[in-house]
Specification:
This protein is an alpha/beta fold. It is built from 7 helices and 7 strands; from the N terminus they run βαβαβαβαβαβααβ. It has a single domain, classed as Rossmann fold (3-Layer(aba) Sandwich). The protein has a 7-stranded parallel beta sheet with strand order 3-2-1-4-5-6-7, sandwiched between helices. The relative contact order is 0.15. It binds NADPH dihydro-nicotinamide-adenine-dinucleotide phosphate. NADPH dihydro-nicotinamide-adenine-dinucleotide phosphate binds next to helix 1 and strand 2.
Length: 251
């Protein structure tokens, strides 16, 4: 029988309209949570809202804009009253060699992945009671060097650092914070890297050759780790991280 670890709980997932975020939002809903998601694309947001059930909340907004993050929190406050678990997941990845990086390329990734993560947590906290939990989506690349991804990997290392300091700060408030570090996961993100199909194919083969399990992971496999970290089963897990990467970073 399906576990129901989030019955009666409110779960917020940024970037819950695609890939890892969508799979995790569905998993929260399947275990009883009322789910709220944030994303920019109205089409995939509407599709996700339908998939997440009648009482799901979908807010259109850009996580890099603090006013949009506040809109998400205000909507959840009005419709659901609190946040029991927050998955800080929205992110972009743009790949280019150092000469191909301009100011906009750099700023967009830091604004979305780092500023967005920080203010999502800051704005959500007033709605989070003792016993609530936060999971941040970083990446297994924080432990590695990967050509053409210097800006993206720096954003993820920054997020992992934010997570450590905020875990210290939140410990006495009874709010747990942990990190999930996915390895290569089959999601639409690979189509948005700014690379040609041939380049993506070559990169995917190269990445896979570095994965001891010799395959890409699935979004649902990341969702499983997120739900564990978010749930009361992980009641003494704090300031920690789980790699979901087929052994890529550690073996
Ligand atoms: P997707 O591109 O499928 O999903 C990204 C999600 O983030 C979408 O829902 C997107 O919605 C949302 N998003 C992006 N930018 C913004 C923004 N400015 N404001 C609001 N929402 C935004 O990719 P993944 O599922 O793969 O990525 C999810 C997270 O997982 C990212 O943080 C990524 O870095 C991380 N990750 C992914 C790995 C992988 O191999 N796939 C590996 C390691 C980490 P919309 O476009 O509608 O705004």
């Amino acid at each position: 029988m399906q576990k129901q670890r989030f019955q009666g709980k409110v779960a917020v997932v940024t970037g819950g309209n695609s890939g890892i975020g969508l799979a995790t939002a569905k998993a929260f809903a399947a275990e009883g949570a009322r789910v709220a998601i944030l994303g920019r694309d109205p089409k995939t947001l509407a599709q996700a809202k339908v998939a997440l059930g009648a009482n799901a909340i979908a807010v259109q907004g850009d996580v890099a804009r603090v006013a949009d993050v506040q809109k998400l929190v205000d909507t959840v406050s009005k419709e659901a009253g609190r946040i029991d678990t927050l998955f800080v997941n929205a992110g972009i990845a743009l790949f280019a060699p150092i000469e191909g990086v301009d100011e906009d390329f750099f700023d967009r990734q830091f604004a979305t992945n780092v500023k967005g993560a920080f203010f999502t947590i800051q704005k959500a906290l007033p709605l989070m009671p003792r016993g609530a939990s936060i999971v941040i989506n970083a990446s297994s690349v924080i432990d590695q060097g990967m050509a053409n991804s210097s800006v993206y990997t720096a954003t993820k290392a920054a997020v992992a650092s934010l997570a450590r300091s905020l875990s210290r700060e939140l410990a006495t408030r009874g709010i747990r914070l942990n990190v999930v570090n996915p390895g290569p996961i089959e999601t639409p993100i690979f189509g948005r890297l700014g690379l040609s199909d041939v380049e993506i194919d070559g990169m995917a083969k190269q990445i896979q050759s570095g994965v001891p399990m010799d395959r890409f992971g699935k979004s649902e496999e990341v969702a499983g780790a997120v739900l564990f970290l978010a749930s009361d089963e992980a009641s003494y897990v704090h300031g920690s991280s789980i790699h979901v990467d087929g052994g890529m970073a550690s073996l």
